[in-house]
Design brief:
about 425 residues, eight-stranded mixed beta sheet, alpha/beta, 17 strands, Protein-Tyrosine Phosphatase, Chain A
Length: about 425
Amino acid sequence: MSGTSLANWLTYLESLHPHAIDMGLDRIREVADRLALDTHAIKIVVGGTNGKGSTCAMLESIYLAAGYRVGLYTSPHLINFNERARINGEIVADALFVEQFEAVDLARQDVSLTYFEFTTLAVLNIFAASSLDVMILEVGLGGRLDAVNIIDADCSIITSVDIDHTDWLGDTRELIGFEKAHIFRRDKPAICSDPAPPQSLLDYARDIGADLWLFGRDFNYSGDRQQWAFAGRNQRRNAMAYPALRGANQLLNASAALAAIESLREYLVVAQQAVRQGLINASLPGRFQILPGQPTVILDVAHNPHAAAVLEKNLGNMGFHPYTYAVFGMLSDKDIESVVQHLAGRIDHWFCASLPGSRGLLSQDLSSKIAAAVGALSTPPDEPLKISCFDTVEQAYLAARERSNPDDRIVVFGSFLTVASVLSTLNRAS
């Protein structure tokens, strides 16, 4: 594959393994042992059902403001694959990805790797060669058997535990919490910002001897309309402006980031001004992202019940809008009924969009699920249900804009694919 473009490499990787997801660490560890992944960088691994991306973005921004060399690995991407890896705030270029894909392909020999496993190894190889001070790695799925878990974290964070990916992780918070807790390490800080963590997570942390930091016991936050404060085990950070990332849960995510930073201060000192600057500068597309102009357009990758509940709260905290239109597309393996029920009271008209791929749900099928979910509510809406169906997200979004008045709002949600499609539409128009 020498000399192949990044696009061609990515197409090749999609066909390399018979399954898109194949949980387990034996294959990736075998290949990792053949690569020079050793690094002196402090390694922070971030898992959780929701809030991972925001927590990673805040950590990256704060450590950059403190003057450290930072590598960030997240997934999935919204528009371009390169978004998954950044060094010192800069997206990794095609040429460097291609170089490392060639290295991983050579090292794997006859070992079959999934797309995510292959790309994870390439990113870790890039980071190992980049003289980083700190690496921030987002877990892709679960924790115990996720490719990122080949890394022994110096600090682990679990942001939240809720129901998602039930085919792989189980259908209860206890089962899912057990899977996620496996990113914790003995004698290392293990941060959990879920206000009510599953007992399975607490038990696992105790059994392995992790240094467990719990929200409400070891760290907390307080705030008023103007500013907020963080209190950790031995450190307080007062009089901070609210994070640039919007939404009801962002102080919880920021507190997890600051707890991790406190737990690592022996290795990475971070001044108060760097925290303030980092929280103001942190950005993450598609997380309650409000676009400028009228009508108000909100982009949110919410695709599970927990995220939908947060989105509903965030919408409720906004100012008055006469009508709210949803541009909505979801994957077939998600808990669509619960997502719809959380938001049914906020939506006046659903613009359903078909999503591509084997897991993508057709708009007509999505419409039927919306009708069933709303009909099952104990107090269904007073107004007749309004649903329109479209073949693409772009068509649904343009129709919603055509229908809306300047004082209305459009909320785009349901999947990374849904938000990415609208962002691509906007990029083409600009």
